[in-house]
């Protein structure tokens, strides 16, 4: 009688698992847990291209807002059209 291959355990592979909601706009969001001296939880955004931590915040929402505000400064602003007929 053959055993079903589905029931076998998957081989151990050193591949980082991606958790839903932990990648945001080119950053990996890392929860460092509770930090007793500050009495809060710290989050960090690691740039996937450089591997450097660019942002830190006490909430994931604030961390995402910081990333968005930094990206808004980098993106070119649309030029305002100036009408030649206006004084």
Largest sheet: 4 strands, antiparallel
How many strand segments? 4
- Ends apart, CA distance between termini: 91 Å
Mean pLDDT across all residues, rounded?
Answer: 77
Low-pLDDT sequence parts: none
User: Helices and strands: which structural class?
Assistant: alpha+beta
Order of helices and strands: EEEEH
Number of helices: 1
C-alpha geometry: elongated
Helix content: 10-25%
Report the C-alpha radius of gyration, rounded: 22 Å
Please state roughly what percent of the residues sit in beta strands, choosing from under 5%, 5-15%, 15-25%, 25-35%, 35-45% or over 45%: 25-35%
Strand order of the largest sheet: 1-2-3-4
What's the topology here?
Layout: E1 23-24, E2 27-35, E3 40-47, E4 53-57, H1 60-74
Antiparallel strand pairs: 1-2, 2-3, 3-4
Characterization of the model:
A hairpin with a 2-residue loop joins β1 (23-24) and β2. The protein is α+β, with helices and mostly antiparallel strands and 87 residues long. It has a domain at 20-73. It is elongated and about 65 Å long. The longest helix has 15 residues, at 60-74. The protein has one helix at residues 60-74; strands at residues 23-24, 27-35, 40-47, 53-57. Helices cover 17% and strands 28% of the residues. The chain has a 4-stranded antiparallel β-sheet, covered by helices on one side.
